[in-house]
């Protein structure tokens, strides 16, 4: 099996695990806190951001294999929440002294993401009505 194929396979398996974990956290938060606030999404985003920070630190100092990094960061955490990758990207921009770029990335991502949701809703409402 080639490295390229192995990479896709470990990401695929990790993504499935991360997605199941996200669903489990969402279910647990619904039971614990109800449905009136997106506590599951908040929990997943906070846990994922902490976890990717820990992984980035680990890999920066230990330099373990690229397949393990792909499995854990891209696969498991990517399936769990992409907010963790967004948070890491923003933190790295900030640490590199690119504070304006970091602020634009954060503000632009949030604003464009919300606008995208509303645009998608509007398109589907128009299409389906």
Task: Tell me, briefly, the overall form.
Answer: globular
Task: State the share of residues found in helices, binned by percent.
Answer: over 70%
Reading the helices and strands in chain order gives: HHHHH
Question: How many angstroms does the end-to-end distance come to?
Answer: 49 Å
Tally of alpha and pi helices: 5
* CA-based gyration radius: 17 Å
β-strand percent reads under 5%
Low-confidence parts lasting 5 or more residues at pLDDT below 50?
none
Please give the largest β-sheet. none
How does the helix and strand content classify structurally? mainly alpha
Average of per-residue pLDDT values? 93
Number of strand elements: 0
Descriptive account of the structure:
By secondary structure, this protein is mostly helical. It has a domain at 3-81. It contains five helices and no strands. The protein has helices spanning 3-33, 39-62, 66-80, 83-95, 99-128. Helix 4 packs antiparallel against helix 5 (99-128). The longest helix is centred in the first third of the chain and has 31 residues, at 3-33. The protein is globular.
Helices and strands, with pairings:
Blueprint: H1 3-33, H2 39-62, H3 66-80, H4 83-95, H5 99-128
Short structural summary:
By secondary structure, the protein is mainly alpha-helical. It has 5 helices and no strands.
List keywords for this structure.
mainly alpha, 88% helix, 129 residues
